[in-house]
Amino acid sequence: MEKPCRVEVFTDGSADDQGRGGWAALLRYGKAEKLISGAEKPTTNNRMELTAAVMALRALKRPCEVHLYTDSQYLKKAFTEGWLEKWQKNGWKTAARAPVKNRDLWEALLAETRRHRVVWHWQKGHAGHRENEIVDREANRRRRALKDP
To answer: Catalytic residue at 136?
Structure first.
């Protein structure tokens, strides 16, 4: 019998006012840790936050119980406060009837959360939390490595 998979994931995204962005995720399974990251332009901070979560979940080779830690209330609350269900029910429109931004990433994230049991956690950014500091530094490093758009 295969051992149940329980993974901790720490994510962060970063973008500057020129549209350069980076994302990072630290995946922990037992004592093993793996850092993944990327960058793109043009983008926004919210897109990078979502991308980090999508890429982290995609990196898992089999369904797992995932405790995902983010400093993005936007990301966490979409799942924990029912925003996604409302957006879908409204044809991907917000309460103000505007199109939901980043729909492509929300749909990718929904697909990934169907593969896993995800427990969402919010942690304050820039508060000395070891894993958050690691992903913050890496997301910013990847963003800064991009040339001007």
So the answer is: yes
Domains and CATH numbers, the chain: 6-145 (3.30.420.10)
Catalytic entry in 8, 21, 22, 49? 49
User: What are the Cα distances from residue 144, in Å, to 69, 120, 139, 140?
Assistant: 23, 28, 9, 6
- 13 as an active site residue: the answer is yes
Is 71 noted as a catalytic residue in this protein? yes
Provide CB contacts within 8 A for 93, sequence distance 6+: 87, 99, 100
21 assigned to active site: no
Q: Which one from 71, 112, 131, 138 is the annotated catalytic residue?
A: 71
pLDDT digits (tens, 9 = 90+) for 36-90: 999 999 999 999 999 999 999 999 999 999 999 999 999 999 999 999 999 999 9
